[in-house]
Amino acid sequence: MTMKTSMTRRTSVAAAALTIAVIGLAGCSASGSAGGGGDAAKGTVTLWQRDGGVDLTDQVKAYEKAHPDVTVKISTIQADQYLTKLANSARAGSVPDLVSYDIVNTPLLATQGLLADITDKAGKLPDKGDLAPAGVAIGRLDGKQYALPVALTGSQMFWNKSLFEKAGLDPTKPPTSLAEVKAAAEKIQGLGGGVTGFSTLGGVGQAWTGFPGAWAKGGSVLTAAGKSQKAEFTSKNLVGMVDWYQDMWKSGLMQKTDEPNQDPGNVGQENALNGKVGIVFTGANTLTAKKADFGSAVGIPGVDGGSGSFLGGDEIGMTAGAKNSDGAWSLMKWLVSSKKAARIDLSQGWIAPDLTVAKSLATDEWSKDIVDTLAIGKLPKSIAYNAVINDPNGPWAQQSQKVIFQGADASTALASAEKQANALIGQAYSQVGK
């Protein structure tokens, strides 16, 4: 996989950057409807993509070959500068035609009026019912569609089949709850020889691999997006999930490299690839190079069973100020729905948003599990997501890490995080007046 970072290792946009983006776009025109139908596509289409997200260069080359009247100019924007540059371009009236960006930023861009209303066009897509549900849902605001998923990934559980057998575990029967994960990890770590029972991505308070365990049976992290939105950090399942991680850390069942900022050389991933970790919560890209050595699950087990996944990847939208709306929609539709684009996505380690097409391209159980994982994938929907959850200095990351790695009381710490989060959410929505 060519992704440079996982969801949790992305460069996050801090609270200050969120404020810049909100203020920067607040004066822009309201979201307009996307003109044209894409049938008369010609001319030049400008596309921005984020560094570290899907690289659409090969997809665009294939599109241009099939659409010789269209030329696409791609600009790759540094991830931690993306929102600010977009805000500046909107103020200057020089936005690109299309933007491909971190999926979690969709509510912010749609609320700010930067994305065009594509409701009618999206509704006519022949595969609209096959697109990853959460990727479509996050692109919807006030009943209108502003963006669609373009290339996706999801968090899952993987296990080393050889270590399972050596520990007396059945590699065909993986753990089905977090309690079972711990039990299996203890047996695997008992093998010695530098083997660790469990590993995850510790950054940003386990959002990428932790939230799925909390919402596996329908739990949530935030209430519905909007001015009345609230954080639900003190829910039983979320507290239980963080408590579980604290227990795993205290018990020594997690790699030392799982602690935030303690793995600059990516040693933790190398340990897993080299057969030194029993169970891993991560994205498929981390282990694909040696997928024959690992079993794969659909999502991540929950506190009380079930399974959940954090849907990651990139969303794509047409800007309200697009100069070539026909060409933009033609390209956008092709990237989202064509089988050719889906094949290229897969070659790069991404999964196409059309899950029926993606499943048809799956050649083994590993690939099929990834597609099924995207079908159950969720993600928090809020214009304050970065400030509340993704910012390493924000309330979720700071307080959850105090619990997991420093032994703080989960209920107390998450209550504090919830209070801080609600203040940030209120501030963000008050700035946009929605």
Order of SSEs: HEHEHEHHHEEEHHEHHHEEEEHHHHEHHH
Mean pLDDT metric: 90
SS-derived structural category: alpha/beta
Beta-strand portion reads 15-25%
Structural shape: globular
Low-confidence stretches: 1-21
Query: Largest sheet at a glance?
Result: 10 strands, mixed
Strand segment tally: 12
Total of DSSP H or I helical runs spanning 4+ residues = 18
Rg: 21 Å
Brief write-up:
By secondary structure, the protein is α/β, with parallel strands linked by helices. It is 41% helix and 16% strand. Strands 1, 2, 3, 6, 7, 8, 9, 10, 11 and 12 form a 10-stranded mixed beta sheet that branches. Strands 4-5 form a two-stranded antiparallel ribbon.
Structure write-up:
The structure is a single chain. The chain is of the alpha/beta class and 434 residues long. Helices cover 41% and strands 16% of the residues. The chain has helices at residues 15-26, 57-66, 82-92, 106-111, 119-123, 133-137, 161-166, 178-189, 207-215, 236-250, 267-273, 325-337, 339-347, 355-361, 365-376, 385-390, 395-406, 410-432; strands at 43-50, 70-77, 98-102, 140-141, 144-145, 148-160, 196-199, 277-283, 294-296, 300-301, 307-318, 377-378. The longest helix has 23 residues, at 410-432. It is globular, with a radius of gyration of 21 Å. It starts with 14 loop residues before the first helix and ends with a helix.
